[in-house]
């Protein structure tokens, strides 16, 4: 929960910003399988009261206000299975509906979707750990796809986002007290729009924040 505060309207009038709070109910089930596989399913519901959010004033400045309440209902499932030759695969999905309810009159009816929460997220991983002489090596590939989302309740601040595919390949080698790690990110060099607000005085103009381009990092760690 965040405490309330005193705020000012664009006309200079003092008004009270009510503190918001979040309550969540969650239930799940986990099942293990012979051979090392496991399945997990979770359902959740969240109630968010007196949402504090930014609002663009007629003079172009940004102020915080209470935008009403919200309800988030969703489910998440994940599956991990061992494969041949020491390989292991994992996959998962999250589906959720985040809806603004009892919205403030300043929020238009067609902007009732709660921001920054993708409708669905898909993820998968594929990896293996294996010996290399006296050392132990590991390799893992991770993919994640963020579905459609929006960025604000205020019509001026609202932007469409999502449809972002991220990828990462990690490889490591542990040799005694020394560890070598290689990480490759954005393997497909995609430029999907992750979006982040830039210049607050140009909110009405298109702003684009692509993914970081393909990158690589290498680290050596020594334990003493």
Entry keywords:
224 residues; mainly beta; two-stranded antiparallel sheet; 57% strand
Care to describe what's here?
By secondary structure, the chain is mainly β. It is built from no helices and 15 strands. The protein has strands spanning 5-8, 14-17, 21-32, 38-49, 52-56, 62-66, 69-82, 87-101, 120-132, 135-146, 149-150, 160-161, 164-175, 178-185, 215-222. The strands form four sheets. Strands 3-4-7-8-9-10-13-14-15 form a nine-stranded antiparallel β-sheet, with no helix packed on it. Strand 1 and strand 2 form a beta hairpin. It is globular and about 75 Å long. It starts with a strand and ends with a strand. The model has no long low-confidence stretch (mean pLDDT 85).
Please state how the strands of the largest beta sheet are arranged side by side.
3-4-7-8-9-10-13-14-15
**Order of H and E elements:** EEEEEEEEEEEEEEE
Average residue-wise pLDDT: 85
How much of the polypeptide forms β-strand, as a percent range?
over 45%
Poorly predicted runs: none
Largest sheet: 9 strands, antiparallel
* Cα radius of gyration in angstroms: 23 Å
**Contiguous helical run count:** 0
Task: Determine the N-to-C terminus distance.
Answer: 43 Å
Category from helices, strands and their pairing: mainly beta
Mass-distribution shape: globular
Helix content: under 10%
Number of strands: 15
């Amino acid at each position: 929960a965040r405490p309330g505060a005193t705020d000012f309207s664009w006309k200079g009038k003092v008004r009270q910003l009510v503190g918001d709070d979040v309550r969540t109910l969650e239930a799940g089930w986990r099942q293990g399988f012979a051979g090392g596989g496991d399945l997990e399913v979770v359902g959740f519901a969240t109630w968010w009261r007196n949402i504090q959010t930014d609002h663009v004033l007629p003079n172009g400045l940004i102020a915080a206000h209470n935008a009403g309440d919200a309800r988030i209902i969703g489910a998440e499932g994940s599956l991990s299975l061992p494969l041949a030759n020491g390989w292991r695969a994992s996959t998962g999905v999250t589906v959720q509906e985040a809806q603004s309810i009892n919205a403030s009159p300043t929020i238009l009816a067609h902007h009732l979707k709660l921001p920054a929460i993708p409708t669905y997220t898909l993820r998968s991983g594929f990896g293996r750990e294996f010996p290399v002489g006296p050392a132990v090596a590991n390799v893992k590939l991770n993919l994640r796809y963020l579905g459609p989302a929006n960025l604000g309740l205020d019509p001026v601040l609202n932007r469409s986002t999502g449809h972002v595919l991220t990828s990462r390949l990690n490889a490591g080698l542990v040799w005694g007290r020394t560890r070598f790690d290689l990480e490759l990110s954005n393997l497909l060099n995609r430029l999907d729009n992750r979006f982040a607000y830039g210049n607050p005085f140009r909110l009405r103009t298109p702003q684009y924040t692509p993914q970081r381009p393909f990158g690589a990092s290498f680290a050596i760690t020594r334990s003493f």
